[in-house]
Specification:
By secondary structure, the chain is an all-alpha fold. Helices cover 70% and strands 0% of the residues. The chain contains 10 helices and no strands. α4 packs parallel to α6. The termini are far apart.
């Protein structure tokens, strides 16, 4: 199965021409980190996150994209990741810690929260969700509760 997923990644990731070896190293790293399936689900977004200005390793790419429910959501995640870093500047010790917190945030975004966005663009919605969660964290409110309140959605119990 990993070989099939790896082949899928190699064929679908828009990796720059002439960088075959770096793609192979990235996919080796993804296999070791257990993020190959996530990367295979979001090859375009994974490629964006792997190169500048993001320059994330395969494990961090997988962490950032773990909770994207669809390809279109996944494509909005690189810009959201940049927004996350900007609004949380100085909050996390390193990129890995920031990525874990981003994944925790993304996990809190329920399908119903996405549905409540109406026709708003995904990137705009995701950045708005980030702003809500960051402000709520300052008040000690957990992300899911803050998103429920902001969207009028009732999730959980």
């Amino acid at each position: 199965m990993a070989t099939t997923r790896r082949t899928h990644c190699a064929n679908k990731m828009p990796w720059p021409a002439g960088n075959h070896r770096s793609l192979e190293r990235f996919l080796d790293e993804a296999e070791r980190a257990g993020t190959l399936d996530v990367i295979a689900d979001h090859p375009q977004a994974a490629t964006v996150l792997a190169f500048a200005p993001h320059s994330l390793d395969a494990e961090t790419v997988g962490t950032v994209l773990r909770f994207a429910e669809s390809t279109s959501q996944g494509q909005a995640f690189p810009a959201a990741w940049q927004h996350w870093l900007a609004v949380n500047e100085g909050t996390y010790a390193d990129q890995s810690e920031a990525a874990a917190a981003f994944a925790e945030f993304a996990e809190a975004v329920d399908h119903d929260h996405w549905e409540a966005r109406g026709d708003a663009p995904l990137e705009e919605t995701l950045n708005g969700f980030i702003d809500i969660v960051v402000a709520a964290r300052a008040d000690g409110t957990d992300p899911r509760t803050a998103l429920d309140a902001a969207t009028g959605v009732k999730t959980g119990d």
